[in-house]
Every structure is written in C-alpha cells, then in structure tokens.
Design goal:
The complex is a heterodimer of chains A (561) and B (152). With 561 residues, chain A is α+β, with helices and mostly antiparallel strands. Chain A contains 17 helices and 19 strands. The two termini of chain A are 33 Å apart. Chain B is an alpha+beta fold and 152 residues long. Chain B has two domains: 60 residues; 87 residues, PH-domain like (Roll), CATH 2.30.29. Chain B is 48% helix and 25% strand. The chains are: A alpha+beta (561), B alpha+beta (152). Strand 17 of chain A pairs antiparallel with strand 3 of chain B, so a sheet runs across the interface. Chain A: InterPro entries: UCP026631, YdbS-like_PH. Chain A: It comes from Halonotius aquaticus. Chain A: Keywords: Membrane, Transmembrane, Transmembrane helix.
C-alpha cells in the first residue's frame, strides 16, 4: 500500500519551506554583497521544484504491506531501507493530525515498539481512512499473533497431538470471530465545562522561566522604563516604593500571562478528549489544532494516580493520570501521560479509575502524629532562611534598602496549618491487590500500584528520620513518570511498620505473581478442553495472558541481547 | 547477611583521597592567587581526608547483602540508610564489572538491573572477582528459575 498522493505536495512544501527560510536569510545577508532579489526568488522556486521531484520519488518508493506476521515498510530514495516489524512487538499505534493535515485529509502515524521511547516507524502521511485501517489491522493481527503463539506453545506442551489440534482450531476460529468486532466502550468524554475548568486551572510554570530568560537578555531595554531616582524625586514619590510597585505589577502580569498561556494550551490539548476501552487497551483521542489518537494496552499500565487540591476538592473535581511502562505516549512532547484526564467530577474520576483498574477504598495508615513537629520545624527553618536572605540583601544592596524583608514571616502563621495537612494527607494502605499511597500538602496525590507491578522495594532513613524513628518505604515501578521521583512512597512511617510493610509488599508481590501465573495456565487449559467462544471470564483471562506473553517475548529478547 | 570484602575500604579511601586532593588543590590555587596563608587549604584538605576515611569505614560497616529465596536484600548507607529488596523475578540482567581502582586491589562488583526507574540498577561492590562472577551466575540462575515472565 502507498502513502496518500497529497503527501507529495505537503511534504515538498514542508521541505521547501525550510529551504526557503534559509535562502531568505542568506538573501538578506547577500543583498549587501550584491545578490539580487530575483536570484533569491529563483532559488526558492528551484527549491520547491527540487523538493517536489524528491518527494514524488519518495512517494513512488514508499510501500507498506501487511504480511502474515510482520508489518513491512520499504522506503528511501537514495538510501533504501526495508523494515519488518513483527506484530507482537508493536506496542502502540499513534495517529496525529494537525490543522493543515486535517484540511488535506492526511494523518501521521507513529509505530512504537517495546524497549524505550524511540519511535520504530514514522509513516508520514497516509489518508485518514488508511490511518485508521492501519491502526485496526495492526491491533487485530497482533492479537491473532498472540493467540496463535499461545495455542502453539500449548500444543507443543501437549503430548496427545490429536486433542491439541482439535482444540487449537476451535479457539482460533473463536478468536477470529471475537477479534473482528472489537467493541469499544466509551469511558470518558470531556464536557465543555470540564474543558473550561481545565483551562482556568492550568498555570504554565514554564512561562515565567521563559520570560526570565528573554528579559535578562534585554535589561537595557527594560531599564529606560524604570524611572530614574532623580526623576521620581521631583514627583515627590518614594523611589523604593515606585520600584516595589513596579515589581508587584510585573509579578502580577507574569502570573496572568502564565495563566493565560496555560489555559490556552490546556484547552487546545484536551479539546474533544475521549477515552474508550476495548478488551485489551485504552484508546484516547484529543487535540484541537493537532489531533492525537493512540492506544495504551492494559498490560502496560503500571500505576493510576488521582490528584486533587483543596480548590478542586471544594468544587468536587479531581485529576487522573495513568502511567505506563517505559514509554509514555507523547513523552517527547513533554506532556506526560496522554491518558491523563485533566479534570472531571470526582465521582466520574473514581468510576473511571475503577474501570481501568479496580481497587477498593479504605482508610489510610498515617505517619505518627509527632512527625508534625518535624514538618513544622522544616517549614520554619525554610522561612527563616528566606527571611535571612532578604534581610541580607536589603542591607547589602542599596536599591533594595526599603524592601520589606520581614514579609515572609507571615508564613509563620501558615506553617502549622501546612504541617498538619502534610501529615493528614500522608499515608498508605495495603489493599487486596494494590499498594496505595497518598502524599502532598496542596496537591494531594493518591497512587495505586498493583502488587504485581512492584519492582524493587526501597526502605530509606535519613539521619533526621532516624532521630524521629521513622522511615520511608518506596514501591518502585517501571513507570515512566517515576523518573521524576514520583514513585508510590509511604513517607515517615514508624520504623517497625516500615520493616513489616517491606516484607508484606514482597510477599504480596510473590503471591499475586503466582496467582496470575495460575490464572494463565488455568485459562489455556480451559480453552483447550472446551474450545468455547468464551464467557466473559475467559475473555478477561485472555487479556491477562496476552500481557504475560508480550512481556515474555520482550524479556527473552532482552536476555538474548 | 554477607559483609563486603574489607579491601573495599581501600578503594573508598582512595576515591575520597582523590576528591580531597582536587578540592585541596583548588583551595591552594585560590590561596596562592590571593597570596593568603597556605594553612587554610592544608587544613581543609586534612579535614576532607579525615571525613573521607571515616565515611569509608562507616560505609563498610553498614554494608550488608544477602540473597534470599525470592529476593536480593541490601542494607547500606551512612547518613541515609537504605534497605533495598530486589525480587528475583524482577531481575532483567546481571553484570559483573571491574573498574581501574578495583583491579588495583583485586576486587570486582556485580550490578543487578531491573525495569524499575529509581532502583533500576543495584550495585554490590567489594567482591572478589570469583565471588562477583559466582554471584552473577547464581542470580542469573535464580532469576530464570523464578520465572522471569513478569519482569515488567
């Protein structure tokens, strides 16, 4: 199959555009030396013609096919490349379309495979229909592949060939029937009010940093705006006061700007956000200017995080994030988990989390009460440090002489409240299938890690923690967000509790792994004997085993390397 | 619980010596440049050396590891004490390696990798080369026996 014909002019213009910019820059430099505008125009024309020719050749060469067990791509004009991607290794198929692409009816496809965040194959521009076909086809074949491998292994294990043959045939046909109609269930669709709220509550912290970087380079540009002390003196105003007011105005402007930018980007990103589930994966769709859609297999989901803050709690809203192993879709774009629901009614979030990975609710074990004194001390020390710095600044720097350095001391009244809430929000719970932790003073995060997703269990005690006889227990997962130190952690619990929690986590991990293994073998045995198209239970088990199988292959490959 | 080979202290002391000498050298440079007395950098270097030696000794004393039925358990740390449990099912692969310092005193380390993010690689230093490769083989065997199909 080929790319969309319209991809030729689109890609050519993309490429020529880049060339043209270079030429214009060169031209503007060149005019000084004697290049004419005509020459530049001719250059641009030539570039477009060249790009068109190249892209036509590219289009001619590009060919993708579905073979029995691999997805093949042949491409390349000067350097030819042939790729065969086994269906079993494909993890995600993401489709994205920006405004222009949507007008032209084009879609970009990224194929992700296990092992890292790199994109295995980027198909640049097929028609929208073809994109959906590719996505569906790969998913269908991937499942059939898993199914076949499972029955094959089972047949090999089985000593009596006859029964095995009969059994695998029935399961196969049952499987195909089942896979041909992937029923999708809508889990979540963002409502306009939620989208608006998401916008209002988004604050882009990168904006101040960016502005700072820009403005530090243009101090000379700012300084004429700042009134000269002498000039201010004639108006009879206090120069430090003027400086202070200007600072406040600047700060407010910065906050408002960050807020507006954050709001716009949130609305643009989450426009028309939909989350659907099929039996084995979550599928998301979102975006106004650029439309993203992709899938997240259930077996890759590591943790589910629900977060809220006092404002959201008051209004009955919460945020949900789903973390996957290794690769988070859209990681490169720094947006984190794509299956994150920015904001929605608390009950909806809870139901959604339940759908994705059900977990019972319950009370949290809190750290000992005495630890609040430690938090209070920490806040007070931080406040003292800031105040001290400001004071030193006001003494050393003349211009800042009138600075109200004592302002942070207001925080002394807030510190006990914050310390209390820090303690109140902290806790952990050992559920039937999940290790659940909660943390955060303002932004309260509840993380649930299924026991079978735990990697290492780390118990650490700093010098200060030892003085308070407490410890922190971290349940590490293969999640991608945890790179930021966002693991599920039971912070500041009694040392004895930490020791027992650690061994408890280890035991539960083993128990739940054994359980899953039993389920898997149990399922294939059932399929073998009955060859049933399947009640709901066996389908659910099939999902589980698909996950296991995929992991085994990835693991084997890893070892072989 | 196994302790590390006592020669690991030599490595740690050597490493801290290198650090102390670099810092001391920098301090001396500053002192010479500002033509101040050399007693301050000398004192600083001595302090770093003492701290490094004490740290190395305490670190050695606190380091313990053991391979249990289903997990590798480590205990270490001077200021922050860390206890790590690496379930054998989760082991992705195991390395043994020898740095230049380690070769100097005839030691090696074994590194255990998991798919996790925070404790993704766990290093057990201070093993004799034979012990290191034995441990590697043993962990590998145990990890395979433990049925690594659930490594993620």
């Amino acid at each position: 199959m080929k790319l969309a014909p319209l991809s030729v002019p689109y890609r050519a213009l993309q490429k020529a555009g880049r060339l043209a910019i270079t030429l214009v820059v060169l031209g503007s430099v060149g005019t000084g030396v004697g290049f004419g505008g005509a020459l530049v125009a001719a250059g641009i024309g030539g570039a477009i013609a060249l790009a068109l020719a190249y892209e036509f050749a590219y289009y001619q060469r590009y060919q993708y096919t579905f073979t029995d067990d691999t997805f093949d791509i042949e491409s390349g004009v000067l350097n030819r490349r042939e790729r065969e991607i086994p269906y079993g290794r494909v993890q995600n198929v993401d489709i994205s379309r920006n405004v222009i692409q949507r007008l032209l009816g084009l879609s970009a496809i990224n194929l992700e495979t296990a092992g890292g965040g790199s994109t295995e194959a980027a198909i640049r521009y097929v028609t929208a229909d073809a994109a959906t076909t590719i996505q569906d086809e790969i998913r269908r074949r991937k499942r059939r592949e898993n199914q076949r491998r499972r029955t094959a292994t089972k047949a090999a294990d089985d000593t009596e060939g006859d029964t095995a043959d009969g059994g695998s045939e029935t399961t196969d046909s049952a499987a195909t029937r089942e896979f041909d109609e992937p029923d999708e269930e809508l889990l979540f669709e963002i409502s306009p009010s939620e989208l608006a709220l998401a916008g209002i509550l988004s604050f882009d912290p990168r904006v101040p940093g960016l502005l700072f970087a820009v403005f530090t380079g243009s101090i000379p540009f700012v300084s004429p705006v700042v009134p000269e002390p002498a000039a201010v003196a004639t108006t009879g105003l206090d120069p430090t006061l003027v400086l202070f007011v200007m600072g406040v105005v600047l700060l407010v402007g910065l906050v408002v700007l960050s807020w507006v930018v954050g709001a716009i980007s949130a609305v643009v990103n989450y426009w028309g956000f939909r989350l659907t589930r099929s039996e084995t994966e979550l599928r998301y769709e979102r975006g106004l200017l650029q439309r993203y859609s992709g899938t997240i297999p259930f077996e890759k989901i590591q943790t589910v995080t629900i977060s809220d803050n006092p404002l959201k709690r008051r209004a009955g809203y919460a945020t949900l994030a789903v973390e996957t192993a290794g690769y988070a879709p859209g990681q490169a774009n720094d947006r984190g988990s794509e299956a994150a629901v920015p904001i929605a009614g608390e009950d909806r979030i809870r139901r959604l989390a339940e759908e994705i990975d059900s977990c019972e609710t319950g009370a949290f074990n809190r750290p000992p009460k005495r630890i609040r004194r430690r938090y209070l001390a920490r806040y007070l020390i931080a406040l003292a440090a800031v105040t001290g710095l400001l004071y030193a600044g006001s003494v050393v720097i003349d211009a800042a002489a009138g600075l109200p350095w004592y302002l942070p001391l207001v925080g002394v009244f807030l510190a006990p409240i914050a310390a209390h809430y820090k303690w109140l929000h902290r806790g952990y719970r050992l559920g039937a299938d999940h290790f659940v932790t909660r943390n955060g003073v303002w932004n309260r995060e509840t993380k649930r890690v299924p026991y079978h997703r735990l990697q290492t269990v780390i118990d650490s005690r700093t010098l200060f923690q030892r003085r308070w006889r407490v410890a922190t227990v971290i349940g590490d997962t293969a999640g991608s967000l945890s790179l930021l130190g966002n693991d599920a952690a039971a912070v500041d619990i009694e040392v004895d509790d930490a020791v027992s929690l650690r061994s408890e986590l280890r035991d539960r991990l083993q128990a739940s792994l054994a359980d899953r293994r039993r389920q898997r073998t149990g399922w294939s045995a059932v399929a073998q004997e009955e060859g049933q198209p399947g009640g709901t239970t066996s389908t659910a088990d099939a999902n589980e085993s698909t996950g296991g199988e995929a992991n085994t292959t990835a693991d084997d490959e890893h070892r072989r390397k | 619980m196994n302790a590390l080979n006592s020669r690991i202290r030599i490595i740690w002391v050597l490493r801290s010596l290198v650090g102390a000498l670099i810092l001391g050298g920098a301090a001396t440079g500053v002192a010479v440049y500002r033509s101040a007395s050399l007693s301050i950098p000398a004192g600083l270097t001595a302090l770093f050396v003492i701290l490094g030696v004490v740290h190395a000794i305490l670190r050695y004393r606190n380091w313990r590891y053991v391979v249990n039925d289903d997990a590798l358990y480590l205990e270490r740390g001077v200021l922050t004490q860390v206890r790590t449990e690496v379930p054998l099912v989760r082991i992705q692969h195991v390395d043994s390696r020898r740095s230049a310092f380690e070769r100097l005193v005839g030691l090696a380390s074994t590194v255990v990798y998991t798919a996790g993010s925070r404790g993704a690689d766990v290093t057990i230093p201070g093993l004799t080369p034979d012990d290191a490769s034995d441990l590697r083989e043993r962990l590998k065997g145990l990890a395979i026996d433990a049925d690594g199909e659930d490594a993620v």
